[in-house]
Write the C-alpha cells for this entry.
Amino acid sequence: MIIKSAEYLISNVDWQKCPRPNLPEYAFIGRSNVGKSSLINMLANKEKLAKTSGTPGKTQLINHFLINQAWYLVDLPGYGFAKVSQSQRRQWEQMIENYLRKRENLVNVFVLIDSRHTPQKLDLEFINQLGEWQVPFNLVFTKADKNTQVETSRNVKAFLNKLREEWEFLPAHFITSTVKKTGRDAILTFIEELNAQ
Ligand code: GDP
C-alpha cells in the first residue's frame, strides 16, 4: 500500500465520541515505550504524526488518524507504566475494554511486543484478555535492530510458544525496526488485504 495521506483527526477518552464508524479501523497498542509512536510514524511515513513522548503513560487517549481517506489508524494508550496510579489504571482499563469490545468498525488490533525481551506476563495477560473478548489481533515484535537476528528470533519463538499454551491457533506476527525501516510493507500489505475483503 502506498500512503498518500495521513492526518491526525481527534483524541478521545470516550469510544462513543470517536469518528463515525464508516471506515475500517486498525488499532495499535502495547506496553508504554514499546515503540508504538515510532512504528505509527514509520507506517504513515510521517516523522511526527504520533508523538514519541518523553513521558510514557501520560496520554491516556484514543487517538484517531485518517489514512488515504480510506481507513482509520488508532493509537491507543500503552499499558504497564509503573508511575500510573490505581485509579488511572482502572480508567485506562475501562476505556480500552469499552473501545475494543464496542467499536463496530474495528478490524484488527496490532499488539506490540518488545523483541528484546523474553515473554512478559503483562503482554501475555493482555493478549489472553483480547481472546476472552474475541477481539481479532496480530503481534508486532518491535526494535528488532537492538538484538542480533538470532536473539530476536529466539525471543519471538519463546513468545509464540508461551501463547501456544493457551491458544490453539496463533495469530500472524510481524518483526519491525523503525531504525532499519523493516516490517513496514508487510504490515501495510496485511491491512490492504483486510481492507479489500
Ligand atoms: P511508545 O511509548 O510505545 O510510543 O514508544 P516510542 O515510539 O516513543 O519509542 C520509545 C523509545 O524506543 C524511543 O527512544 C525510540 O526512539 C525507541 N525506538 C522505537 N522503535 C525503535 C526501533 O525499532 N529500534 C530502536 N533501536 N529504537 C526504537
User: Anything to note?
Assistant: The chain has one domain: 6-196. Strands lie at 6-12, 25-30, 62-67, 71-75, 106-114, 137-142, 173-175. The longest helix spans residues 86-102.
